[in-house]
Amino acid sequence: MALQNIGASNSDDAFYRYKMPKMITKIEGRGNGIKTNVVNMVEIAKALARPASYTTKYFGNELGAQSKFDERTGTSLVNGAHDTAKLAGLLENFIKKYVQCYGCGNPETEVVITKTQMITLKCAACGFVSDVDMRDKLTTFILKNPPEPKKGSKDKKAMRRAEKERLKEGEAADEEQKKLKKETTKKKGTSGSSRDGAKGTSSKKKGNGSDEDHSPAHSQADENDQLIADDEDDGDDDIQWQTDTSLEAAKQRIQEQLSAVTADMVMLSTNEDKAKSAKKSPEREVKAHQNGSKSNDPLEGLVNEINGYLKKGGPASQLKSFLVLSLDASRTATQEEGSQMLLLHALEFFCGNASPEAVKEVPLAVKVLYDYDVLEEEFILEWYQKGLSGANKSSTSLEECQAFCEWLQNAESESEDE
């Protein structure tokens, strides 16, 4: 089949790559039933990337004759006898109006119907969008019979929409993760500042003592903190601070920090059953322990050990370390009603009767018991406020604990405001 360049202006270009078959026509019938059949209209339409019905209808409109294209058989008929040259000229006009780009003249265009029912030609070579003259008769036929979209164009649009949706979902997920991270960081910062404030108060109080008084307590506190992660997959945000309270760990800490004699003194038996003692006032309980009454209650054992430690001349600078090592046995005992107040009164009583140096250790000892959840904030404040309003308002232990209790009150008011 002979080929020719698409567009009359390109007919002399031997290297022009856009080509179409030369038109072949055939006259059929006689009299009033004579018709012109464009034999290879389907091949021409494929080369122009336009439906064959468009070119057939254009011939009928321009010639003022009825035209018909049979989709089933691919037959293109125009009423009347028309020679090939005339129809070829009309085809050139169709190419200029509906095929070639108005910008670059390239025939590689696509018919696009806009939302306002306007027909445009989008060029794939230069990107120019050509506006078709809507006064032409063929435009009405094209609007009623829009061209089928190219294969894959719908899929490409669907893929682009899906890609946009995935990007939006990813951005939303990233925003959620950033918000969660910020909230977690704020919570950590709040708890960390509270801890730092408490440590600052304790270190400020202890700064009045000697360097020898400061170093043992600091090293002991560092060794008692152990980092345990809840799950590896949860990341750094789920890390929890815990202390190993097993009997073996307590023995190891005692052996490392104290001499053999002191270790035997503070080691408490954890195999004895706790005996519930009758309720007594804090003053009577403290006096009972001072008189040497014995009990299987771990808390009473801790009070007796404090008394014995001070009576045996134990250095006041190591009272905080001594309490840290004795916490394993006393932590569960303070869950009973009145036990925490008893422990506070015992510290006040024994340290007040021991020496001025021991009195200075009271706020540090209370801080240790508070950090290890042996003493609760409400009991510490209740003991301090009752002491100030009662007969012990001139107690040196209460005076030493003033800064720590004020810090507790400020921390509580800040948490309520938040």
TrEMBL record:
Instruction: Tell me the ranges covered by the W2 domain, including all copies.
Output: 208-418
Per the record, its GO cellular-component terms are:
cytosol
InterPro entries in the cross-refs? ARM-type_fold (IPR016024), IF2/IF5 (IPR045196), Transl_init_fac_IF2/IF5_dom (IPR002735), Transl_init_fac_IF2/IF5_N (IPR016189), Transl_init_fac_IF2/IF5_Zn-bd (IPR016190), W2_domain (IPR003307)
Superkingdom field: Eukaryota
Q: Where is the composition biased (Basic and acidic residues)?
A: 147-178, 272-288
Enumerate the Pfam families for this protein: eIF-5_eIF-2B, W2
**Start and end residues of each stretch annotated as Disordered:** 143-223, 272-300
User: Where does this protein have compositionally biased stretches of type Basic residues?
Assistant: 179-189
Which molecular function GO terms apply here?
A: eukaryotic initiation factor eIF2 binding; GDP-dissociation inhibitor activity; GTP binding; translation initiation factor activity
Task: Tell me the GO BP annotations in alphabetical order.
Answer: formation of cytoplasmic translation initiation complex
Query: Which keywords does this chain's UniProt record carry?
Result: GTP-binding, Initiation factor, Nucleotide-binding, Protein biosynthesis
Task: State the family it belongs to.
Answer: Belongs to the eIF-2-beta/eIF-5 family.
**What is known about what this protein does?**
Catalyzes the hydrolysis of GTP bound to the 40S ribosomal initiation complex (40S.mRNA.Met-tRNA[F].eIF-2.GTP) with the subsequent joining of a 60S ribosomal subunit resulting in the release of eIF-2 and the guanine nucleotide. The subsequent joining of a 60S ribosomal subunit results in the formation of a functional 80S initiation complex (80S.mRNA.Met-tRNA[F]).
Q: Which PANTHER family match?
A: EUKARYOTIC TRANSLATION INITIATION FACTOR, EUKARYOTIC TRANSLATION INITIATION FACTOR 5
Q: What is this protein called?
A: W2 domain-containing protein
| Species in which this protein is naturally found | Hevea brasiliensis (Para rubber tree)
